[in-house]
Amino acid sequence: MISIHDPVHGTIEVTPAEIKLIDSRPFQRLRHVKQLGFSELAFPGATHSRYAHSLGTMHMGTRMVERALAAIDLPVDERARLRQTLRLALLFHDLGHPPLSHVSERVMPKLGDLRLGPFADDPARQATHEDYTVKLVLDSEITELIERLLGDAGVTAARVASLVLGRPPPGDEQAFVVAGHDLTTVLHQIVSSELDADRMDYLRRDAYYCGVSYGNFDHQWLTSNLTALAHDGHYVLGLQHKGLWAFENFLLSRLHMFLAVYYHHTSTCFDHLLGRYYEAGEYTLPADSEAYLERDDIHLISALRASKSPWAQLIVRRRPYRLLVETHDFGEGPKDTELDARLTSAGIDFFRLRSKGVLSKYFKRRDEVAPLLVIEPEVGRTSRIEDYTPLYRRFAEAVAVSRVFCLPEQLEQARRLLAG
Amino acid sequence: MISIHDPVHGTIEVTPAEIKLIDSRPFQRLRHVKQLGFSELAFPGATHSRYAHSLGTMHMGTRMVERALAAIDLPVDERARLRQTLRLALLFHDLGHPPLSHVSERVMPKLGDLRLGPFADDPARQATHEDYTVKLVLDSEITELIERLLGDAGVTAARVASLVLGRPPPGDEQAFVVAGHDLTTVLHQIVSSELDADRMDYLRRDAYYCGVSYGNFDHQWLTSNLTALAHDGHYVLGLQHKGLWAFENFLLSRLHMFLAVYYHHTSTCFDHLLGRYYEAGEYTLPADSEAYLERDDIHLISALRASKSPWAQLIVRRRPYRLLVETHDFGEGPKDTELDARLTSAGIDFFRLRSKGVLSKYFKRRDEVAPLLVIEPEVGRTSRIEDYTPLYRRFAEAVAVSRVFCLPEQLEQARRLLAG
Amino acid sequence: MISIHDPVHGTIEVTPAEIKLIDSRPFQRLRHVKQLGFSELAFPGATHSRYAHSLGTMHMGTRMVERALAAIDLPVDERARLRQTLRLALLFHDLGHPPLSHVSERVMPKLGDLRLGPFADDPARQATHEDYTVKLVLDSEITELIERLLGDAGVTAARVASLVLGRPPPGDEQAFVVAGHDLTTVLHQIVSSELDADRMDYLRRDAYYCGVSYGNFDHQWLTSNLTALAHDGHYVLGLQHKGLWAFENFLLSRLHMFLAVYYHHTSTCFDHLLGRYYEAGEYTLPADSEAYLERDDIHLISALRASKSPWAQLIVRRRPYRLLVETHDFGEGPKDTELDARLTSAGIDFFRLRSKGVLSKYFKRRDEVAPLLVIEPEVGRTSRIEDYTPLYRRFAEAVAVSRVFCLPEQLEQARRLLAG
Amino acid sequence: MISIHDPVHGTIEVTPAEIKLIDSRPFQRLRHVKQLGFSELAFPGATHSRYAHSLGTMHMGTRMVERALAAIDLPVDERARLRQTLRLALLFHDLGHPPLSHVSERVMPKLGDLRLGPFADDPARQATHEDYTVKLVLDSEITELIERLLGDAGVTAARVASLVLGRPPPGDEQAFVVAGHDLTTVLHQIVSSELDADRMDYLRRDAYYCGVSYGNFDHQWLTSNLTALAHDGHYVLGLQHKGLWAFENFLLSRLHMFLAVYYHHTSTCFDHLLGRYYEAGEYTLPADSEAYLERDDIHLISALRASKSPWAQLIVRRRPYRLLVETHDFGEGPKDTELDARLTSAGIDFFRLRSKGVLSKYFKRRDEVAPLLVIEPEVGRTSRIEDYTPLYRRFAEAVAVSRVFCLPEQLEQARRLLAG
After folding, report:
1. Neighbours of chain B (3+ CB pairs under 8 A)
2. pLDDT surpassing 70 at residue D337
3. What mean pLDDT comes out for the span B86-115?
4. Could you tell me whether strands A234-240 and A373-376 are parallel, antiparallel, or unpaired per DSSP bridges?
5. Residue in D closest to C210 by C-alpha
6. Quick check: A239 and A374 in contact, CB under 8 A?
């Protein structure tokens, strides 16, 4: 085992085979993709990369899966295979992230251009960063490394990619059915769900680097109280009921990180400016793996610096539009057309942004998502989390922040207009 | 200045005069009154005392008052007097706490017995720990020490006591009116309100010692965004709007500390056992200051060890009743008389406990409490926090936990009864 | 597994059998024995108990032993037996600690009175807290609980006691020889050595509760780099060379905890006063297990409060002698008889205390202690730590603090005498 | 005041005038200069920038100066002027740092080219990053901003630059002599000395981001115990003797950060590769302010990516030489010419690096550095720290790490050669 220092988890341990995968070019590229993009402008400490986040997600998810599967009787080598496949899915889950911001997904090509075969659903839609993750797992030096280093242990690139997507590997549908237990869902829930390793890492990591306390939650207690339960023929994530307050705290940690950090007016404004820059088509993302690997934050920032686009120059010279108005609601949406009309008629150069989040999807999208079960062993009862306690109904509503930004030179004029 | 190491605040600084007050017997007694009483049984780390909490409250409140009054023009010596009086009110706010648990307030005498003169409202009601705090400030070696050490600076025992109570000192009603500014309310809000130094210290301290993360909130950010505002002729606490998420997080920290720690089934059960022990009248609290000072945790535990009371023996031998059922609601209250009847008819020895908390009183008790104001300097607007954002309406409801405990020997029988 | 919240380790997990042992009266007694005794007077946060420290030591040592034995091929059930026996030795290592302070060992009876049979070396010498630990493991309700709960797994009270003492169990000398590997030494090193779980817990815990940063060291990195190596026919602890700076930092953490906390003038002074109180023979410790279990901090403090001894009254009323002079040296010892003579002839009531510590015993007591080996896998070399790098020669010397304390009333007079 | 979130200090407060200086292009450039350069390759969390470090240094130094000058009687406005000038010197101390690594100083021009006038000592020597700091303070948009925003308060660019350099401003030698107190030395000691704000920030920050505990020390305690003392006609930094262990711990924190982080073999190796790349003269740093501002990490990395230099390609593709041998000594230096000869004759491509540090310069360079004084107020004694306690003689010696690196392809061959 090789130990890596990590500020969030202390020490992260990786195997010699994993080190070779970590040293691959697609994974090393993540060193130059910042985890929080423009947030660094409001939170000077937030310089962390998706590289460290990916290592942390693998570390966190390993502890989760060990707990979740502890009570299920599995052959030693099969348990090791599932664990190793999951570790790679966790390690690589952000491999396809574009430079700097989720906004960069807008300049991605059609999914069909990525030539993912059965791993693509609709070739006509625009590709996402997740599609690029699948692409790089299935079509880069990583593909061959997985087969060579871990093929004998039953780990394949296709199985890793399928855990990222949450669908069984095409043509290998029983890959995660072991000793009669279908573990496909629970394994995918650890990669991506309301209580996944991705969030377990990023909330703590983002809070740590931003210097805010919103992202703190009792991750150890939460992990200690995880389990997996058979439900409708396949295993899903379960939580011991004494881990309930820790889970509620985790949900609220995420809400506050959204309100205070992810939806911060500075980064939402710069994201908007980047979107405007992209509209001109000056910068696009290639479908080819090798070409895509060159696209990191350094590549994009160099392009912005060299560009004559006024939007690029606003970004490079850090001249954002200024926040004029901010309102909050429960997702019902403000209809402030009157305000917009006044600003327009006064000749104010402004734009309106709206950031909206739902605390928990378990309520309104009950039938779409795999459930999280709460267990009360003393009384032998198991419930879906949204049914367990009435307190959770508070989390069904969305929370939204609406903002109007205007040109700095017009800020005083616009404020007078609003006050008047 | 003398520096004291503190795990929560790092370094706490006190003046030579304050050290003499800290070294007094009434304050040293707090070394032997645990902050969380029986919580230590569920959280082995929670051994901290009200002594350290009181120092921390003084420290925290000092930073709050410096911020809150920063923008108000006050003569240097008057500012120093207010600051020093407040520091003592913060330092002494828990002076009268009884041994081990709030439950011990049940064996306190009538308020009249404390002979507090104009500081007593209704002599016929039972005294509280707050009355004892006033008693010890006004009638112990502390009284004389304050006058001797700080009398020249305009600090009096009566003024300190009045800041604890939140009423101007009898016969000295202008004590906290300076240069035309009535600061009585804002000073008292720092000692006791929804955003007071007491909570700012104990949430962090209790979380620190219990080893849970619920009590984390951005205390520095919150403090940095405090101010004081004139409102209806007197000053009240104000909050810059960019401190809003930190305040919401602080409220939720408190909720989670209640749910996970303060209402933990183990300590609520032991509190109940102690209450039953007290019913026999074997142990009472004296009205006299000197005699009261002997009553600390060591005195009470020694009494419990020596007692033949079956309730005392359950406590001393750590043989609590066992948790049988737990339900949550929004304060509307369960009417589970059917369950109680079944347990009774089956001869189960059980009791029912209910713990209930309100996140924020600013909504339903709007007219009773001094408001917390939110300021938006850019648009020159000030609102009561409950009006500022619709999001806060989530915090108006109470949250309650109801539990049934039964005799350990009957636990299996009772569980079968419920399952059947 | 049952999870326990702990502020230092986050979550500590224990088995149902261990919970029964933890709930025993001898272990619960440790709730009322403070870890740092009188240190709380100088560090108000330091209220933690040996109860939490013992749980933490078990937790820490488990991670150490899993690492240390990872590379040794052992049958699954034998590995489990060694692990469980070690966990109990770690859990119980402080079971026999007397009330409040190590000074209380002075009122312990002769070792012979404890009737430990072959576990006693010299019946004529005074017993120590370690002897009482062995006594309580071998002769209390714990003895029977171990046999009943864990006897089938090969865990016996005698084996647990022997790991505490570091000698094979009498008549069962091969207890820790498995598959030809003699693990007696390495297991004992985890219980007690220069790099043991006791220190790994108490340095961090004491620093955490005192609010000082001296006790921080990279415990995860250190543990990740542990191993066990065959050396002269038995296994001893080994350290990967990249853990070297973490180990050096750990040694220096301990030095600074001694200088700043354990040797603090306040607690050394109170320890001295307690020793003087004991001289009169008013309070002694019984040899019988049941009677000994009643002796905790509450028992001793109640006795001190009730005592007419002037030394007891100085302690109870917190009236220590005052620090007059402090000097540091490298253990060679000051011969300041001239100063003492001057104080004596001036009629000053004073006493002199000297606290001395060695950073590492591996140098001057090389032949007495089991070695710690450093491994450089790349070059296939293994060295004793004292030979590995010349830098460690800095740690061979002792460091000592000498102090003179005098009666508070004579402090000014004594200072003038020294200045004159 | 504007509050900025910072992970190390919690909240950093800056004035509106300072925000304008922070928003200047020279200061914003520091966002793209990593604090630890190549260390990120060994410590994935260490992505922090000199931007955040500079804010933290200003914050830390402000607390230090408030403490140090607290006991000196100064006019309010003069105290404010000194504080503000110092804050800017702290904020800007790293302004001239070259991209990525100190190694980049090798491609700086002659000092004379920077045209610093009386602020340059020897025009013929090569410029350093400190000279560029002075350059940017005296000749960029910052220069004009200081005069415009803070000129009325007596703050000038020349005075700020002179505090960075530690020499009185040319022609304005009494700038820091106030009310007869010469504060030049103590102010400069806070910017740059063995106990300066730079170290107080970077040790904690680097440890925080690397995820190691070496950089922890009791900064609050240390700061609380700071003072300033008149010594040979000017004020120097003083330390209350009870802050001594905290200072010793701080020195050792720094030693361990050197050994474990700053001298890590990975970053020293990449620094060497960068030095080799620079030898060809392909990349140089311009003397002109405007041109220099374009040179940040992004500029240099883009240049390395575009370069055909084999050294640049080793860096970009992360193909370092491999560590073959590492030895430690006390600075006396190994003469391992025999080893080098064997490697050379075997045709091994290798290089040798040596990293050396002194814990404290107060001993051997006693006459060159301004002293740090230790105060014992009780006995009215003041000593230079190197005379105060014999324990400090341990810190006079240097500690060095010597390493040999070789081409990866030859690692096995070289190891066999050494083993044979």
Report:
1. A, C, D
2. yes
3. 98
4. parallel
5. D218
6. yes
